[in-house]
Amino acid sequence: MFNKILIANRGEIACRVIKTARKMGIATVAIYSDADRQALHVQMADEAVHIGPAPANQSYIVIDKVMQAIKASGAEAVHPGYGFLSENPKFAEALDAAGVAFIGPPKGAIEAMGDKITSKKIAQEAEVSTVPGYMGLIEDAEEAVKISNEIRYPVMIKASAGGGGKGMRIAWNDDEAREGFQSSKNEAASSFGDDRIFIEKFVTQPRHIEIQVLCDTHGNGIYLGERECSIQRRNQKVVEEAPSPFLDEATRRAMGEQAVALAKAVGYASAGTVEFIVDGDKNFYFLEMNTRLQVEHPVTELITGVDLVEQMIRVASGEPLSIAQEDVKLNGWAIENRLYAEDPYRGFLPSIGRLSRYRPPAEVVKADHVVRNDTGVYEGGEISMYYDPMIAKLCTWAPTRDEAIEHMRIALDSFEIEGIGHNLPFLSAVMDHPKFISGDMTTAFIAEEWPEGFEGVTLPEITLRRIAASAAAMHRVAEIRRTRISGRMDNHERRVGSDWVVTLQGESFPASIDADPEGATVRFSDGTEHRVTGNWTPGDQLARMSVDGEPLVLKVGKISGGFRLRSRGADLKVHVRTPRQAELAALMPEKLAADTSKLLLCPMPGLIVKVDVEVGQEVQEGQALCTVEAMKMENILRAERKAVVSKINAGPGDSLAVDDVIMEFE
Amino acid sequence: MKDILQELDNRRAIARQGGGEKRIEAQHAKGKLTARERIELLLDEDSFEEFDMFKAHRCTDFGMEAQRPYGDGVVTGWGTINGRQVYVFSQDFTVFGGSLSETHAEKICKIMDMAMQNGAPVIGLNDSGGARIQEGVASLAGYAEVFQRNIMASGVVPQISVIMGPCAGGAVYSPAMTDFIFMVKDSSYMFVTGPDVVKTVTNEVVTAEDLGGASTHTRKSSVADAAFENDVEALAEVRRLVDFLPLNNRDKAPVRPFFDAPDRIEQSLDTLIPENPNTPYDMKELIQKVGDEGDFYEIQEEFAKNIITGFIRLEGRTVGVVANQPLVLAGCLDIDSSRKAARFVRFCDAFEIPILTFVDVPGFLPGTGQEFGGVIKHGAKLLFAYGEATVPKVTVITRKAYGGAYDVMASKHLRGDFNYAWPTAEIAVMGAKGATEIIHRADLGNAEKIAQHTQDYEERFANPFVAAERGFIDEVIQPHSTRRRVARAFAALRNKKLQNPWKKHDNIPL
Lengths: 666, 510
Description:
The complex is a heterodimer of chains A (666) and B (510). With 666 residues, chain A is α+β, with helices and mostly antiparallel strands. Chain A is 27% helix and 33% strand. In chain A, strands 14-13-10-11-12-15-23-21-20 form a 9-stranded antiparallel sheet. In chain A, a hairpin with a 2-residue loop joins strand 7 and strand 8. The longest helix of chain A is centred in the last third of the chain and has 23 residues, at 461-483. Helices cover 37% and strands 17% of the residues of chain B. In chain B, the strands form 3 sheets. In chain B, strands 10, 11, 12, 13, 14, 15, 16 and 17 form an 8-stranded mixed sheet that branches. Chain B has a 7-stranded mixed sheet with strand order 1-2-3-4-5-7-9, with helices on both faces. A two-stranded parallel ribbon of chain B has the order 6-8. In chain B, helix 12 runs parallel beside helix 14 (375-388). Chain B has helices at residues 2-16, 21-29, 35-42, 102-118, 137-153, 173-176, 195-202, 208-212, 214-220, 231-242, 283-290, 335-350, 368-372, 375-388, 403-408, 432-439, 447-461, 465-470, 482-492; strands spanning 49-51, 74-81, 84-91, 122-126, 159-163, 166-168, 180-184, 189-191, 226-228, 297-299, 307-314, 317-324, 355-361, 393-402, 418-421, 426-428, 475-476.
């Protein structure tokens, strides 16, 4: 076994690898860029080597620099994590040349699976089910039409070197095939410098389901069940689970065996993932093989009890697998939610900055449930613009899917992140979505269910009532404390009453509170009653309440005369008033939010570098208006529609906050 | 007998009607509450004790004798806010437009005298069309009587004004002399002369809102300390402020139960200061993480944002906070920020509220605008205010403390009691680059040498230890333990006694 390994990565995956290495008694070396000096992976590792400036292409993916770090630290092996150099055959080669073990598959396997056309050919030879399609290079549009007809519509026209949706078109008829071929080819040429195109069957009601395989250098290979990764936003996975709610045992075995066959066909040795697309009739087709540890590997670990990183390290050190296929038992259900520093209310715009508050839920390992949080950040740390915006991977496990989802809901509600925009509310919305709950989702789930983007959550009546009941009880506690101030007139103290009116989401709930030492019973005017308990005290930013025996976790902020409460993806302004206060408050005019459609607002805190237009100038849709520099990134703000500039409020050198008005239009 | 008792109830009912159903409706239609409704929201339930309910004016000119409504356009009395006594007057716009008559003024003066005698704050809810023109000079005399009491009460009991409707002409000068002015957005305005006069005299066309609305006074003129969405919110926030304030200048600031450990460690503060000394950070995060329960009552949030002023609590006790804000103008001192902070410091000192100062100041803002505007005297106000203050003073330098601004910001030399610095502090006459260019003027042409000199200067002075060696810094502390250290410092100062020499009053550079 190795004595020391280097982790050629950063963030949560570097931390995750370090944890296993430490458990195995292996010393760890972190590498870090300028932006990561204070990063968690650097703090966790036994030693750390600086490898250059913040941009990854000047640090984490520069093979020479990583090789120097390996040499300097004397590491015997390297775990590449995912991304960066993990699937770079040149890196594997360099390690080989230096006599350092690569904790990953052999270079040949990386190369074979790295190209979409080659990998598909190998898959077919290994009798892996592939999407019907034409593998050869297609000369022109007419040939594309001919092939499309052979495969039968709908077809997908794809760039061989493509990824991330680029150079990809769907065609339902000859005209679309002709047009799609041309545009894919152009896009592929400009994006990848490689205009090779292929055509395949377009799968309807597609699900993304992948098989985890594990092979050693002695010719053994097993599969560790599947992961359902259908919930994606623009090809970025958001929620994963294992097992898939869709697969049956027979399909699972067929997919697993084919995946292992493919791995063996390329001499695979390490953990790897074979991705399939599965249609509504459980037909599955090979998509590609990822020759690395996947981001979502924890869900597999949670249902199999296998530490995949440990297995990778053992395989890399030459050990044979200690697990046989029959030892692999899928136990319970695991769900992963990826927390991204992306603001769901602003079209999932990446958000960067200081984590003024970062309190993940406590990790728990119990017989009836597990909460696991893989993270690479900490409170007071920075989300930098240079890297992936993922903050954490929150996983829950429980014997059943429903229980795992319920634990996830609570865990999301308990997760405190402030200072940056993040997708927690959106994840909560997914966890409460009926389609997700029923397990009936395709890769189009997010696009279909939130076609206009995410605009928050409307809570069901019962949840609203429970939140209202909690708010009433909490407000009463806060008001009683206020009456205990010094300097009051003896015998003429304020008495806090028991009648309150709670207003939230435009609804008013008159309530009467009956408090006792254990909690409070809140009775609404329609006669319904809710029992509220919890140990919230004024100032606590997280209230762990129990209402009617059901857990309710609220993030608590202050607003005048009440609270800002966040739970289950909703962000509520909650006022708690006496009946008389409520009566008078009802007389107050509703103030409409200012119309900002004629304003250019600063989307992020930053510095104005340049203003490209003048007062009176007519601008066209898409025209650059000004440049805002944020965290050294120049962001060009463009006109959303044709308009005339009527006023410019900021000039070069001004530093602006979010939503500051930069210019106004007529 | 019963009839006689009934008579009282009848008269009370009439008095409570104010200007009558229609005018009350009109008041509501403007999004405003009536004088009595406002008092209900301001005070604890059922705690209001009214004075002079039946007082009526004595004017007989212009047919005024025909209308002598009870109360004469203002409701006065006392009540409690969370059990603590306050005096209040609330002008009733439904009666003669809330205009101030001789008798109206007498009512206000009466409660102000009571407040002074009994040592309790005065809260004025202003909603008045101005002087009662029919009364002429009697009305003006009334204003002046109120002014004189505002002046006498200043520094004796806290005075709070809430502008909840018009407040124009001479009427503005009573609020102007109180400690805090709050406004209600969209329904209040204050100006000495209104848009019509402005148009006549200067030809400027301006709306009442632009001339004297809440936005103008919180952002531009700094006349108002905060603005709120509506009457309900404004009155709730006044209650919140009163919870921070002592009842009078002989009283200690209030204490209330707290749910936040004084020794709470905030590890994240260790990374608050960015690695690059020119990168700003949000000082409010520090204030919120140091104070009890993250609760911060900010004063003049919208004005001179390069300095932050407001109240927090430590161990349940009120502390006034002054802090440079690196996010705005790099946190430098200038005319506006000096004035803003000076007034706040003097309020705290007048009412025995300890002062916590967080310093990250690169100096005074240069420029003709500043010099022509008199930054020398305005800056001196803050210096003066800190120097004369005898309340407990604890200072924490987080990063820059350069030049004269270092002296100003509650330095040891201005009788700071506990002067702490974070290890990231740089206490120097100026930044390294500027200093080097002066000291080593001869080497200006040689970039290499200058760089070396700059580095040398940084190593020597860009830290808190030079100041610590001299005792100007009592202790260099870890950022994460700031709350504990500051709380203990104020605990140690609870019995502080310090007196300035006798004088009639000082001569602060106004």
